[in-house]
Amino acid sequence: MTTSVAQVLGTQEDPALAAYRSGRYDEAVKAFQQKIGSGQDVPHDHRHLFRALFEVGRYMEAEKVARGFINEHPESPDLHNSLGEVLWTRGHLDEAETAFQEASNRRADDWLTAELNLGIAAFERGRRTEAMQRFDRFIDFYNNGEATTSGDLTAVGIACQYLGISDSAMYQDALKAFDEAVAADPNDLRPRILTGNLFLEKYDSGNAATELGTVLQLNPYHPQALLSMGRRMRFDGDENAIAMAESALEINPNLVGARVYLSRQLLSAERFDDAIEEIKPALETNPV
């Protein structure tokens, strides 16, 4: 991926969005709240406010934003998928699936992401046949030209990763979809992080470092990127890997993946009591 940091930053004109994308989360939250209060660009600003809160683990506030928008705009399909994502993160699985289905049925802008989330929900809850059927539909979504945005293409890539469990050739399709997602919106960091994670999963630490390093140039405080970089450093035997993963929790203390990762490292070191203490906040965030 050849898009430079300077090129990406050069496209950022909205100060609130620029603050969010560079990891100035408190500033971004305040700016989006002010914009919403003035009635500007209601769906987009609510969605960005939700994402800023969600990214730093302020899940109850994020849920309130999503529910508030849905209640005030019952005719709009927006933020149903967002509501589902925060409900899923907090362990309210049935409610989350209902919200995902609502977003899909009403063809929200992110309906393909909602479709993906329904597949992930089925997979995680043991309905594997249903899940794989859902993921397989993403090949048609892509071939029919229904995946047009960065979010859509990212959803296609994730679906291909799941299909790769039984067909390893699908991993190349996942990388292609993530690459197209970055091309569609160079400011969207999620497909870059997912690309880095996929490289690491395939034991390609060098390319993983390149992708994750680019993300952290753009946003040095992105919790998922910090966690992924910590995992990459651990793979290479870097003694600073744990500190890198811990830095993700400084931004988002409720990041369950970071708690699980650090707890496993403590278990490996036979620090059993510390491992239990590390995992407790994760269970408070998501008890299931």
From TrEMBL:
Pfam families named in the record: TPR_16, TPR_6
Keyword Repeat part of the UniProt annotation: yes
Alphabetized UniProt keyword annotations: Repeat, TPR repeat
Gene3D superfamilies: Tetratricopeptide repeat domain (1.25.40.10)
Record keyword Thylakoid present: no
InterPro entries registered for this protein in UniProt: TPR-like_helical_dom_sf, TPR_rpt, Ycf3/AcsC/BcsC/TPR_MFPF
PANTHER family the UniProt entry points to: CELLULOSE SYNTHASE OPERON PROTEIN C, TPR REPEAT-CONTAINING PROTEIN MJ0263
Name of this chain's protein: Uncharacterized protein
